[in-house]
Amino acid sequence: MILHIDGDINRYYVQTLSMIFFPGATFAPDEEAGEDVPELYLTLEKSPNGYVATTKVTLNGKSAEAQRECEAREDLSDERCRKVAVGASVTAALGELLEYRSSWGILTGVRPTKVATEMLGKGISKTKTKRLLVQDYLVSAKKAALATEVALNEQRIMGTPETRDCSIYVSIPFCPSRCAYCSFVSYTSKKLLSLIPEYVHRLAAEVKEAIAAADRCGLRIKTVYIGGGTPSILEPELLEVLMSSLAEALGDREIEEFTFEAGRPDTITAEKLAIAKKYGANRISVNPQTLSAEVLSGIGRSHTVEDFYRAFSTAREVGIDCINTDLIAGLPGDTFTRFAESMDGILALRPENITVHTFCVKRSATWRQSSGIYSMRGGDAGKCVDYSQIKAQQALYKPYYLYRQKNTVGNYENVGFALEGKEGRYNIYMMEEVHSIIAVGAGAVSKFVCLRSPTTGKPTIKRQFNAKYPYEYLKADSIPSLVSSMEAFCEEFLDG
Fold first, then answer.
1. pLDDT the model gives residue 373
2. How much is the average pLDDT of 84-112?
3. What is the mean pLDDT of residues 11-20?
4. pLDDT of residue 370
5. Edge to edge, what strands does the sheet with 445-450 contain?
6. How buried is 358 (Cβ within 10 angstroms: 0-12 exposed, 13-18 middle, 19+ buried)?
7. Does the residue 411 lie in any domain?
């Protein structure tokens, strides 16, 4: 896609708006024009009352044009006013050309609840917040209500974040096989899987050092999350090494939540879950993605529906306090009827958490754009998403966690639902960036968060990247740089 932009406009924002209508689009500067290449012309000008944006788009001999103005208001920053004008103009022109309107309007970021949170934080009522999301951001009434409810639930769960709160993330980037839609850093080859024993012993030692450094910095650990990949790929003796090291480092401190993202049902055993529970894990994930055997086969999952039911039953028998299950709406080969059966099947089990994702393929996944799987309208995905939200709330699950991704079919969202008091707190802390995440292991990224910088008064986030691949991680010594970055950040932004 070719963009011609004139004015004080964030180019990336225009790209993300365009990708709602052209999922998987690229924006190479040297792309040659042609009838089958979308071309967009955008200008932004200051007006007496605010900003006026004008957009013209052409494709296959057809064109559409739209002009929109955003008037300046006290509750809109200058930057936000520009984005509203640009967003309304771009989506109007593209919507007219392609006869499509996104239910999330001009909101493109990972956190569509952010705008609702800001409004509520300014004392704007729940009713007015929903109205402004519809009026200014062109969000559908249904999604405006969802975003506002999630924002309120997040605030209730988080309370008032403290400056020195943090969470620990432990990375297990290995899987028994790779799902066709997966874009996470995870490794499945025999050569890389052979590194697991050495990796776990290194990880166990570095977890201790990271937690000791957090203690020296006066950070308070609120949650622990062991994620992947597939953490339950570890054999019991290696899981014991990791979990015992974590327990020793944590000592007798109180942890709000300790998640073991077990993941793939075919790797879950009673022995592994008993070890996880023994050392403090009180929340696990058992993720079927679908309860359709045909769809499972099509997406490259190596487990069966029966494996999922067995793993879920095992988790209940072991006595895990909180179980999360993941489903994906809009998977290739799935239908509304199949998805509805999957959702109903999960609800019948009454897990404490249900997370419903919308299918999304990234460049690093096995499925590529050339497969024709990107979809602007999303097929049955919208019906599936609506069904999951209606049925979950009828069953007394509350939406507490929401995020979105680029190139998601139909531009829909991912939502976490929970029974009262069973919300996954790490998910909120991580996504809302309200406290630091100390991340250990290959491919993990630490985020050091200061909610209010002593110099600028604004939130400040600094990231520390570990070696991406397990073999690189084993060759590197990542702890010194992690510890030094943690200590420097705390000294600059938190001390005094």
1. 59
2. 95
3. 94
4. 42
5. 398-403, 414-418, 353-358, 322-329, 283-286, 257-263, 220-228, 165-172, 436-440, 445-450, 460-465
6. buried
7. no
Task: Identify whether 373 is part of a domain.
Answer: no
Rounded CA separation 419/382 (Å): 24
Interval 37-87: pLDDT, tens? 899 999 999 999 999 999 999 999 999 999 999 999 998 999 999 999 999
Per-residue CA distances from 96 to 5, 20, 53, 106, 177 (Å): 20, 14, 16, 15, 43
Question: How open is the CA angle 143-147-150, to the nearest 5 degrees?
Answer: 135
* Residue in the block written with tokens 């022109």: 93
- More confident position, 76 or 406: 76
- To the nearest 10 degrees (0 to 180), the angle between helices 381-394 and 336-349 is 20
List the alpha helices (DSSP H) in 164-261: 190-193, 196-216, 236-250
Mean pLDDT for 194-206 is 95
Q: What is the pLDDT of residue 372?
A: 54
On the question of pLDDT at 143 being above 90, the answer is yes
Query: Counting Cβ atoms within 10 Å, is residue 192 exposed (0-12), middle (13-18) or buried (19+)?
Result: middle
Q: Is 182 exposed, middle or buried (0-12, 13-18, 19+ CB in 10 A)?
A: buried
Report the 10 Å Cβ neighbour count for 171.
25
Region for residue 182 given its phi and psi (left: phi exceeds 0; alpha: psi -120 to 50; beta: otherwise):
beta
Query: What gap in Å lies between CA 209 and CA 221, rounded to an integer?
Result: 14
Per-residue model confidence as pLDDT tens digits over 285-299: 999 999 999 999 888
Query: Is 48 or 186 the better-scoring residue by pLDDT?
Result: 48
What CATH number does the domain containing 68 carry? 3.30.160.100
Domain that holds residue 21: 1-101
Q: In the predicted model, is pLDDT for residue 181 greater than 70?
A: no
Among candidate residues 304, 281, 158, the one with its CA nearest the CA of residue 224: 281
421 preceded by cis ω (within 30°)? no
Whether residue 92 is found in the same domain as residue 109:
no
Give the pair of three-digit tokens for residue 132: 């402004």
SS3 293: helix
Q: Kindly state whether residue 69 falls inside one of the protein's structural domains.
A: yes
Residue 369, pLDDT score: 44
CB count in 10 Å sphere of residue 416: 26
CA atoms of 251 and 367, how far apart (whole Å): 44
Split at pLDDT 50, 70, 90, the class of 377 is confident
Is there a single domain that holds both residue 167 and residue 298?
A: yes
Residue 27 DSSP one-character state = -
Q: What angle do CA 232, 214, 257 make, to 5 degrees?
A: 45
Tell whether 50 and 190 lie within a shared domain.
no
CA geometry: angle 151, 157, 163, nearest 5 deg: 100
